[in-house]
Amino acid sequence: MLISGGTVRSLKFTKAGNHLLAGNDYGEIFVLDISRGIPIDIIQSYSTKAIWSIDVSWDDQLVALGSEEGTIELYNLQKILSSSTSSGGVGGGGKVPLTGSVVVH
Question: What global pTM score does this model have?
Answer without folding.
Answer: 0.77
